[in-house]
Specification:
It is built from eight helices and 14 strands. It has about 250 residues and is of the alpha+beta class. A hairpin with an 8-residue loop joins β8 and β9. The two termini are about 35 Å apart.
């Protein structure tokens, strides 16, 4: 089961979208399709937001909670993903990629530049401090300004992830978009997963220079047994820092 990465094409939206008859007329979805659609609920608090999905077809419950990281020298948004096996009879085996399909770096006035010269801007982009593949740092090589002075860009975005209750073991991060999406440059269909497993992607080389990168935490072969609604939780922290050294020292 592969969930579409485009939020406008999720299983829930597909089942609730009008169907097309052979003659081109619009028809409503079948009642059986609507009954099988996942149930999604959003909860909003003062400092957090949670999305809960219950998939009765595959017997999976997913909870994603977002909250901000406080009392640190850098800003960050934390994503806490909990997957629960609600099937009373079958053990659930999962291999996961959880995160962002696109991660932009830091440097200069990116908002306008991404809209006007997005492809050209990729020439300045790079992923650094990613030798261990556990905490890539996304930044520009220099500020993309048309000036006589060259300004080295030190600030950037970072991503790290771990399993809850196993905080000392960081999960590998897939930052090479081609490894997940293949030749789909729109980053909508994970064509790379059709050719290779997540483990093969983790073990293989990644390239993050002069291209738009991703930020997926990777987990291989988790078994969720049937007793007591067994679940596991992936915590991913995505933030911005003036230097990768600040984040490394804090960790």
């Amino acid at each position: 089961m592969i969930e579409p990465f485009d939020p406008s094409r999720t299983k829930h939206e597909q089942l609730n979208a009008p169907l097309q008859k052979d003659g081109g007329d619009t028809a409503l979805p079948h009642s059986t399709d609507l009954e099988n659609a996942p149930i999604r609920t959003m909860y909003i608090g003062s400092n957090e937001m949670q999305i809960r999905e219950v998939d009765h077809v595959h017997r999976i419950e997913t909870n994603v909670t977002y909250f901000t990281l406080s009392e640190e020298d850098f800003g960050a948004l934390v994503r806490r993903t909990t997957i629960t096996n609600i099937d009373k009879d079958k053990t659930l085996h999962l291999t996961i990629l959880d995160g962002l399909a696109r991660m932009q770096p830091v440097g200069g006035k990116l908002n306008g530049l991404l809209k006007s010269i997005g492809r050209t801007l990729e020439g300045w982009m790079g992923v650094y401090a990613a030798d261990g593949k556990t905490m890539p740092f996304y930044r520009l090589s220099t500020e993309p300004a048309d000036t006589a002075a060259v300004v080295i860009e030190e600030a950037g975005h970072y991503c790290l992830s771990f399993m809850e209750h196993r905080e000392t073991e960081l999960l590998p991060i897939i930052y090479d978009t081609t490894k997940v999406f293949g030749e789909d440059t729109m980053l909508l269909r994970p064509m790379g997963l059709f050719a290779k497993s997540v483990k093969d992607i983790i073990d293989g080389p990644q390239y993050g220079s002069a291209k738009t990168s991703s930020a997926f935490a990777a987990g291989v072969q988790y078994a969720l047994i049937t007793q007591f609604r067994f679940s596991f939780c992936v915590v991913t922290e995505i933030g911005s820092s003036f230097s990768v050294t600040i984040v490394q020292l804090t960790m």
